[in-house]
Predict the structure.
Amino acid sequence: MSIRFLHTADLHLGSPLRNFGELARDRRLDFLRTFDRIVNLAIKREVDCLLIAGDLFDSYNPDAETVGRVQEGFSRLEGRGIRIVLIPGTHDNVVFAENVYSRFTFPGVTLLAEAEVSAPVRLEIRGVPVWFYGFAFRSDRSAAALASLRRREGGGIHVGLLHGSLTGNPEWDLRKKDIPFSLADLTGLGLDYLALGHYHNCACLEVEGRTIACYSGSPEGKKFGENGPRHVLVVEVGEGQAVAERVEVQSRVLQELTVDASLFAELAALESELARLSFPDLIARIHLTGAVEEPLDLANLAGRLQGRFAWLELLDETDLYDSSQVKRLEREDSIRGLFIRKVHERFERADSAVERELCREALKLVIGRFGRGGGA
């Protein structure tokens, strides 16, 4: 017999999300709405158990309102007979005595918060014994924590929860608070399924065609890089087998786009292209590239696109160093012409790509100032 789990992690509820500027408050509400959507999905799909593999909260001390929202959601799951098993992560850690898990109770939750697994927790689910392995990592007390996840004796289904870093992952450097592991390490634990957290993009790890572990990823994009659809996993787990299904749950989509501004002779045409890419729930970072004749007025362009995106960040990566305008201005008998000539001389003497890029940016800045009424 198989057991159906809904696996999520890295919800980061209560995060300040200041990187989204004026949208930060709405983004915090997005995260709570996505949590509610996960609860509703667990009920709709009639899962047996919700697994949360760390960082339910963004800190060890989230605000009481956020905690109350979680308690209400867990109460609904408990009322439907859906079990909840969770581990603390790196953000909502239990290192501090006044952490959220010691100050509040959470309905229906089995919390795996010891420094190592002394013995797995056994729950009876639809007549099947299910053994849960998990721990709250403490760098000073969890030396053997990974090995403590190794399967013990006992019939039924054996499931682990682990918040850590697959070695070789290019997205971060390992820190003291991270738990590094390899695919061979996970395979050696002998579990039927490992619910992973910490890595914010969805990925399943297979050995000889069998899924042994998955990262569910963050269900809502916390920063750029967590782009596109965000997921939870609905996982059917039996003895020695697991089948995972991705389900989209995000409230809004983050996306990074690149637009070649040199293809548009007029600012209005560039504006039309950016408007074509927009939709009201899109949080976008757009890289503007290409060789242009005049510096882009990003503030003006962003203002003209107001309301077409949920939030928009424009990055000017254009180049006007070799433009005909610069060549014309360089010949002027003026302070502006002198400056451009000096920049070109500095560029030719530059011994690093960083110095050459500074020259390009200086040129763009000064010409933009002159072009917008800065004087000559």
